[in-house]
Amino acid sequence: MLSVKPEVIIPERLTWERLRDVQFKKKFYAEEGVILLHPTFGPTVQALNGKKVTISGYVIPIDLESGLYVVSQFPMAQCFFCGAAGPESIVALKFKKLPRRFKTDERCAFSGTLRLNADTIYELNYILEGAELLPESR
Predict the structure, then answer these.
(1) Percentage of residues in the chain with pLDDT exceeding 70?
(2) Which residues of the chain form beta strands (DSSP E)?
(3) How many C-alpha atoms does 56 have within 13 Å on its Cβ side?
(4) Alpha carbon distance 7, 25 (integer Å)
(5) Which of 23, 44, 48, 47 is nearest to 111 (CA)?
(6) Which residues is 30 bridged to in the sheet?
(7) Residues 12-15: contacts with CB within 8 Å, 24+ apart?
(8) How would residue 38 be classed by pLDDT, with cut points 50, 70 and 90?
(9) Does 130 have pLDDT greater than 60?
(10) What are the φ and ψ backbone dihedral angles of 86, each rounded to 5 degrees?
(11) What is the per-residue pLDDT for 81?
(12) What are the CA-CA distances from residue 101 to residues 56, 67, 97, 98 (Å)?
């Protein structure tokens, strides 16, 4: 009997430059009564939606109790939350299984499936679902 090996998907390396292929316009969200930046993703980043990717950057803890982290192009003092960077400079990490606690500004690499978010104001524009810490970062 012929056995079939499962297909190995090699994640594409995602660069911060590629994530800048997005434009933002101010939009009023009536449900919260606020004006926020609404993204329109460009074709180079749209091509990665739903694909396995890897990305590296600075880890920023958002909520340690729930294991909520983002990976940022910049250290915390310069990231979107605290500095002058835009929302395209951070990616939410939704872990398959939280590997460990991370320190602020710890440099790490992750793999997972990229999901673009333009619809839910309660989540970031870029989300890495099923995120896993890459072995060289342990």
Answers:
(1) 91
(2) 12-13, 22-29, 34-41, 52-63, 68-72, 90-95, 106-116, 126-133
(3) 10
(4) 40
(5) 48
(6) none
(7) 12/48, 12/51, 12/52, 12/53, 12/54, 13/53, 13/54, 13/55, 14/48, 14/53, 14/54, 14/55, 14/114, 15/55
(8) very high
(9) yes
(10) -95, 175
(11) 61
(12) 17, 8, 12, 8
pLDDT tens profile 11-34: 899 999 999 999 999 999 998 999
Identity of the amino acid at 34: V
pTM of the model: 0.88
**Does 84 score more than 80 pLDDT?**
no
User: Which pair of tokens denotes residue 47?
Assistant: 């091509």
The Cα–Cα gap between 86 and 125 comes to 11
Q: Which residues does residue 126 pair with via DSSP β-bridges, in sequence order?
A: 116
